[in-house]
Amino acid sequence: MQPKYVDPNEWLAANTLDFFHYINMFFGSVSDFCTPASCPIMHAGAACEYTWVDSQKRSVKLAAPQYIDYAMAWIQSVLNDESVFPTKADVEFPKDFRATVRLIFKQLFRVMAHIYHAHYDTILHLSSEAHLNTLLAHYICFGRDFDLIDKKDTAPMADYILLLEEMGRI
Predict the structure, then answer these.
(1) Rounded to whole angstroms, how far apart are CA atoms 54 and 142?
(2) Which of 50, 67, 114, 122 lies 20 to 30 Å (CA to CA) from residue 61?
């Protein structure tokens, strides 16, 4: 829930930055197990393969670690761009700020979905599943509350999200 006197874009910016850091931290915990050999395709289950869109707007198949590296580097560059995520009080957010945040949320969800589908056993071994599940629940609730994620983008995790809903966690 957004605090009463906080600018909506400031709230989106602060939470987007937090989600980036948390998801990046979770990927860091499994990154030794996400290699081009173990994850030659960026996927979120057998029926969902992600491709990277390069600078010429071509769809390129990448190994998961390379895709995630590109996605996180792109997100980091956007977060560091003062024209998109201003840090000065007198600078306004751009008109397309929400659209940019939606793109960031889409990429972050793909990273989370890959972690669940390809590396959940590692998360279990690290006894981090409760933390990851809480992060997913928070991410889904925030994304829905602020219309930052489309149902079609969350389809690879739909069954699990439904389970969290039925358990009252979302």
Answers:
(1) 29
(2) 122
| Residue 74 in tokens | 């792109």
**141 among annotated binding-site residues:** no
Please, what are the domains in the chain? 8-166 (1.20.140.30)
Tokens of 46: 């057998």
The reply, when asked if residue 131 is annotated as ligand binding, is: no
**88-97: pLDDT as tens digits:** 988 999 999 9
A 10 A CB-CB count for 5 gives 5
Q: Is 48 annotated as contributing to ligand binding?
A: no
What pLDDT, in 10s, does the model give residues 5-50? 889 999 999 999 999 999 999 999 999 999 999 999 999 998 999 9
User: Quick one: tokens of 94?
Assistant: 């751009």
- In this structure, is the dihedral angle defined by the CA atoms of residues 147, 13, 111 and 23, taken in order, positive or negative? negative
- Rounded-to-integer distance, Cα 14 and Cα 147, Å: 16
Query: For residue 31, how far is the Cα from the chain centroid?
Result: 16
